[in-house]
Amino acid sequence: MTLFIVLASIGLLVLLITLGKLNPFLAFLVVSIVAGLSLGIPLSDITKSVQKGIGDMLGSLIIIISLGAMLGKLVAESGAAQKIASVMMKIFGVKYIQWGLVCTGFIIGIPLFYNVGFVLMIPLIFSVVYQYKLPAIYIGLPMLASLSVAHGFLPPHPSPAALVGQFHADMGKTLLYGISIAIPSIIIAGPLFSQTLKKIKANPPEAFLSDNLPEDQLPGGLNSFFTSLLPVFLLAFTTIVSSLFPQNETVKGICHFIGDPAIVMLIAVTVATFTLGSGLGKSIKSVMETYGESIKDIAMCLLIIGGSGALKQVLVDSGVSKEIAGSLQNWNIHPLVLGWLISAFIRVCLGSATVAGLTTAGIIAPMLNDLHVDPNLMVLSVGVGSLMFSHVNDPGFWLFKEYFNISIKDTIRSWSMMETIVSVTGLIGVMILNTFI
Questions:
Q1: Burial, 211: exposed, middle or buried (Cβ in 10 Å; 0-12, 13-18, 19+)?
Q2: pTM assigned to the model
Q3: Which of 10, 166, 294, 428 lies 20 to 30 A from 200 at CA?
């Protein structure tokens, strides 16, 4: 009966968002209250559980996600993303232009939120298409695969960062494991898969041709790469150093402080304020205005993350997580595959990768200790599951369809299949890593 209530709650969440067209944050609140009532939590305690869940979830994430948004916004508006693209194009040339776009998408995808990166990269893709008269899907899909993988696999993106917090994983290790899985996933779902899509005729509007900054107004290449990738450098550096000196408490303490995701992002934003802000002649006031605008872009994302925390706390406080953990022990399925399956199912039903990942975490996190799996791998398993088969209920599906001006059939054949390949390949990578860790 308990498991049925949980499944019914997830079903209600799906219906409210899809058929009811309810905002996901409001849907999470409604479902949390209904689940609390159904699971027997006293009326006076339900709102306490909801408030505690939202507070606990956002308390650990709001700094990371907000600072990440600020960094991404400044990288985009300063021209650093454009400079990175320009450098990569020069390195790879026309013959390997597709691989240049893949690398550009991956590098830019780390600091930028997916929708921002998508809109930012579209003019570059189309300018290449028009200039070299190449098939648009063949050229564009690999770069967008890179963006999608970064969005689903790699912190400090909102969903992976939230999953790290939920599963009490290590941000640095998750990032390193994620990159090792991301690279083969991008290659298979991007350049290799796109070879089968050359005959799809896309008619991208000329209005999307590049409206870029003049070359003399762009930051330097080294500055652009360094500032954009600084969070990755810091997380990787502190993780490696702490593993090299496991007995040195002073080194471990310093690495633990500097490697804390909130401190990493604060350092990155502070550096960017000067390297991409005042160092390029911008006033501190204008940089701060850019940061203020960035928060508007993620306000709803933060609310959705908070709402997922409410549902998680209701499941914890009702004791249902322990019952589910006990029943799952009798299932002949690996916990990492289970996390992927739940996340993939919710993704297909709802369309939102963030909601899918966080809802799954609410179910899995309370019983993670009983499942005896590496929490970093569980973050990745749920994350890759949340990218499964994007279709008509996903805004990303329509972004791709409308920008490339292709049919729904061809969008499913290209975009939806690319996301599916990323998800399945990612799971295989997680399971391979699990055999060595």
A1: exposed
A2: 0.75
A3: 428
